[in-house]
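Recall that a protein's primary structure is simply its ordered list of amino acids. Everything else, from secondary elements to tertiary packing, is in principle encoded there. The following example makes that idea concrete.
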Amino acid sequence: MEKLGDTPSNQAPADCPSRRTVLARSLLVAGMLPAQPLWATSASMPIVGNVTGLYSVEVARIEQPKTTLDVIEQIRRFPGRIAVGGGRYSMGGQVAVRHGLHLDMRQFNQLVWLRSSARAVRVQAGMTWRDLQEHLDPHDLAVRVMQSFANFTIGGSVSVNAHGRYVGLGPVGHTVRALQLVLADGSVIEATPEQNGLLFRAAIGGYGAVGVITEVELELAKNEPIARSVVRIPLDEYTQWFRSQVLSDPDAILHNADLLAPDFSQPIATTWRRTSGKPLTVTQRLVPRRQSYTREQNVIWAVAELPGGDRLRRTWIQPEQETAEVKWLNHEASQDVAMLEPRTRAISTYVLQEYFVPGERLAVFTRSMAALARTHRANLLNVSIRHSPADTRSLLPWAPQEVFSLVLYYKQRTRDSAQASVARWTRAMIDLALRHGGRYYLPYQLHATRDQFQAAYPEAVELRKLKSQVDPWGRFLNELWRKYL
């Protein structure tokens, strides 16, 4: 293993753990602690949920650090398992571990420095992309890669190695210059591709397996006007069309294609290109915060529940989204996920899945996916196609080669029988992706079997080996890694 970084000069060396802590950790490793640890009491255990309302996790304690020293102290003081979370948009317990400590990073959200001439920034990991955009926009700067919505925390996005619609750039890990990590013994290291490079790769897309990301240093882009164009492409022609008309176009900034229910047969391709000569049709620099999205909520309900909802979307909603528009890049990148939030999640909820397949398999996979969804009566509202080059950073890549991703947005009931039904068709989807040389994305419901996980992510062997070296007590854990790692 590579030599880990030294403790910074302004950081005191780790204290020797107490006898109680050593005993507790030894029992954890030996598997001899009770299911509910002695430091947790069932009457007082808080709940860590997520946006779907499914798979909430009982934890022993929630802490909200505001400094790296807070993180160090909380790691040293708590004797059990520790998980890290941000915006809580992961959907299967990836941010919490049962009866453990949940580090809620959302108050750990300050700007460390911004160097506009170098197009670089360093932030605390709990800052959201929307907060970062407030700092960048006055300098005519923009985030280089992020999700389509701005509510996510930056550290969380790095932990899942998120991606968006950015043409030719791939996951967010490709724009990370450096990370500050706190390890299981409380030591603080700086990790870059050159320094502590293996830990750097393991933290990007590692879902908190090797340490707590406390600071993130990012490359930035220029904020500039962009113009939308929308075309409909036959499915069999889409891959070649994308490569010749979008990927090879230096002015193409953002791109995705939507496949509409019920047949998902024709990509509606939306590309945003830089423009200097067209007047702005949207003059706001950023999407205002805390807007009302009642109209969008009603539309989602109508499409999902009313007879003829598919026809409603095709004849009324989709044409509105295909109109010509010119706006700032930062405005398009600062969308609020609230626009997708349903009126209620009590009886049913809205969930995501994502699959990655090589370009030459995209059309056949998509047709098989649609047929499988119909067989299982899955209520898919939309499938969005994105593109990514091969991931050269993460130790656990979802794109080991160039891939197209298919993001499934669907509605499911919250009752147990509905969850069991979704689990069955999810495993069938994963098998389908594996048969086509693809993979599935890990931030969602944990329906995959262990065999499916190992087939999709054989690199987990290397992650498991590294974790045993830097976290021999197995302190950093969550429900994802409890099941698969």
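The first strand starts at residue 47 and ends at 48. The chain has 14 helices and 19 strands.
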